[in-house]
Amino acid sequence: MSYAMVRSVGLVGVAGHLVEVEADLANGLPAVALSGLPDTALHEARDRVRAAIVNSGQVWPNRRITVNLLPASLPKFGSSFDAAIACAVLAAAGELPLAGLAGAAVIGELGLDGSLRPVRGVLPMVLAAARAEVGSVIVPVANATEAALVPGVMVWGADTLGMLVRAIRGEGPLSPPPAPSPLPTASAAPDLAEVVGQATGRWAMEVAAAGGHHLAMVGPPGAGKTLLAQRLPTILPELDDEAALEVTALHSVAGALPTGAGLVRRPPFQAPHHSASMPALVGGGAGLARPGAISLAHRGVLFLDEAPEYSRRALDALRQPLEEGMVRLRRSAGETTYPARVQLVLAANPCPCARPSGDADCECTALVRRRYLGRLSGPLLDRIDVQLGLEPVSGAALFDAEAVAESSATVGARVAVARAAAVARWSAHGWRSNAEVPGSVLHARRWRPPPAVMAPARRLLDLGELSARGFHRVLRMAWTLCDLAGRSRPDRGDLAAATELRRGERW
Ligand SMILES: Nc1ncnc2c1ncn2[C@@H]1O[C@H](COP(=O)(O)OP(=O)(O)OP(=O)(O)O)[C@@H](O)[C@H]1O
Ligand SMILES: [Mg+2]
Ligand SMILES: [Zn+2]
């Protein structure tokens, strides 16, 4: 036989696509031609595959070899087709009985020594194979646990091309996937119980978690902004199966998944430094684009600490993803999109001089102060429902031996109940949290609270202390407060409390 086809899987963004790797051997001068839109890494595959075959003790066919990757229209990146190319070439040369592969998809990069190396994005690749009803996949051993997270597909691991070839010939075994390693112990995880006093801050976290609201905190150094933000994910509900697969797939494509780990079940937390590059923040890079922090925070929390220190460009780049829930990356091979539905948390000092004592010792001029927080204003701040001013916790509260703060588990249980209420109310309309509901809907007759309930917020609106947009945010948070209280409709108290969460800011 001088022709063979082996299945593999390619990735575009976080979506896998089945790829057919064809090899044809013809008489003529020995040469190798690759076709089917390969990028540079794929051209390098030619040399890697040849060396791997020879160094595995197999025979490289000295003929005219054509390798073609189908569909040609699909952009192909990276080195994950190596193993399939090697199998197709050996099979075309009659060295490998394709029946031994039984329609399996083969995924993996080859080292020159013939080792089978792990690749990024195995989870979404295997998901695609499962959807295409490919019954089994063969992957590098280091990727086998990850591959096996996908239900309904047989997964086999191989260490080397030699092991793979022997198995296909029926001369040796492949490795079953190792079970996922247990999660790290919970005791190391941050917990809301560690935050002493700071009742308003803790309450704002609970409200933000319950309604899915973005949150901004302004306060002097040491007020506990970072402390609180890191604990927001600990009170968010676990990811459901669909979300867990989505999040794990993104981390897999980014190469951020630890070997042998299970599905990501906790909402992620990402805190990119303000000096982070644009690719690190929103994604990019050569070949198969890496998801950035905003996509790694998908279904979790994106924390911008010292938010005014981020460049204008970085803050601007976040606007489109925040609006659409996904990142669009323009690439030479076309647009790549990555999911990026995050809960945004901003923290800022009130001014650049950042005195721990707060405003008392501040040396900044009024203009400098305004400009500093002004960097956040406009489109970004406009989307943030909970805007909180924080003061440092008092010494008395910090040393109050009697005080026992509620744990993340306790608060998280209330959050879960409130979230369920919001889902029950909005899911028929396509929203899953109060934060997603447009202000116009909340203000429309069907949902608008009666005038007596709205009175406190109305008065602020009339006084010009609340903008129309701010008013909608108050309405939105009032729904979250009523969900937390287990009421079916916001009452006067909810509206008043929502107003406080909105006006706690000094900016
Ligand atoms: N309410 C609190 N309960 C317990 N510890 C606290 C509290 N507030 C502050 N701390 C302590 O102070 C430290 C500083 O808090 P944190 O880093 O969150 O402050 P910050 O507001 O982010 O300050 P900065 O503006 O300097 O980043 C924390 O690591 C913690 O040890
Ligand atoms: Mg901080
Ligand atoms: Zn200052």
**Hetero ligands:** adenosine-5'-triphosphate, magnesium ion, zinc ion
The overall pLDDT average reads: 90
How many DSSP E strands?
18
**Count of the separate structural domains:** 3
- Rg (CA only): 28 Å
What this model shows, in words?
- With 507 residues, this protein is of the alpha/beta class.
- 38% of the residues lie in helices and 17% in strands.
- The longest helix has 19 residues, at 408-426.
- It contains 19 helices and 18 strands.
- The strands form 6 sheets. It has a 5-stranded parallel beta sheet with strand order 11-14-17-10-18. It has a 4-stranded mixed beta sheet with strand order 1-2-4-3.
- The chain binds adenosine-5'-triphosphate, magnesium ion and zinc ion.
Brief overview, please?
This protein is α/β, with parallel strands linked by helices.
Main features:
18 strands, binds adenosine-5'-triphosphate, Rossmann fold, four-stranded mixed β-sheet, binds zinc ion, alpha/beta, five-stranded parallel β-sheet, 38% helix, ATP binding, YifB family Mg chelatase-like AAA ATPase, 19 helices, 3 domains, Ribosomal Protein S5, domain 2
Topology overview:
Elements: E1 3-12, E2 15-26, E3 31-35, H1 40-55, E4 64-70, H2 82-92, E5 105-106, E6 109-110, E7 116-117, H3 122-131, E8 136-140, H4 141-147, E9 154-158, H5 161-168, H6 199-211, E10 215-218, H7 225-231, H8 241-253, E11 269-270, H9 278-282, E12 283-284, E13 290-291, H10 293-296, E14 301-304, H11 312-324, E15 326-331, E16 334-339, E17 343-348, H12 366-374, H13 379-382, E18 386-389, H14 395-398, H15 408-426, H16 439-443, H17 451-463, H18 468-485, H19 492-503
Parallel strand pairs: 3-4, 5-8, 8-9, 10-17, 10-18, 11-14, 14-17
Antiparallel strand pairs: 1-2, 2-4, 6-7, 12-13, 15-16
Helix pairs in contact: 1-2, 6-15, 6-18, 15-18, 17-19, 18-19
